[in-house]
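Please, is this right?
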Amino acid sequence: MASQELTQERNSNRRKRQLREFFGAWGVFFRGFVEHPKMVGSIIPSSGFMIRKMLAPVDWDRCRLFVEYGPGVGTFCHPVLEQLRLDAKLIVIDTNKLFIDYLNRTIHDNRFIAVHGSAEDVERIIREHGHEQADYVLSGLPFSTLPDGVGERITAATERAIRPGGAFLTYQFSKVAHELSEQHFDRVDSGFEWLNIPPCRLAWGWKEEA
């Protein structure tokens, strides 16, 4: 009987911990949206359906460096780290220090690097961490609400930062990211995910092998 009660208590404590973590992350995400609404694409984190579809084309065996712009509270970070090679790195870049501080407190993985900065500086950031180019760059930035010229500069810098054969993965609710990718990448595949709040457009901008 004592053993059964102990198991029930442990399960109850685990559920309470999971709820605290969930509402803690949601609270940080909501605060980030309220403080910087033009820099956060949605008030609701991405769905599991969208995450799986977005990451499906990634060749994890060849991926040594994965970069993410606008990681928020780590909705994509955990699925990426689950599939990332043990000798690879994940660099996330966000202008919102609230998100960077939260990620540094909650993700304990020596492959993970959180940088408080701008995606426009991606080339410098990856060099400072010992890499020449990234294999994949993921972005959930709301390109349609960025200041004039910023989206163009980010996309151009991203194309230079990605190795031949790599890709720029974007998801948002307008066509802007897809259109910018078409201007800079050799091929752009498109998709759509209805099972997300709200539904969003996906794009994979590929840089052809040399």
User: Anything to note?
Assistant: The mean pLDDT is 85. The chain has seven helices and seven strands.
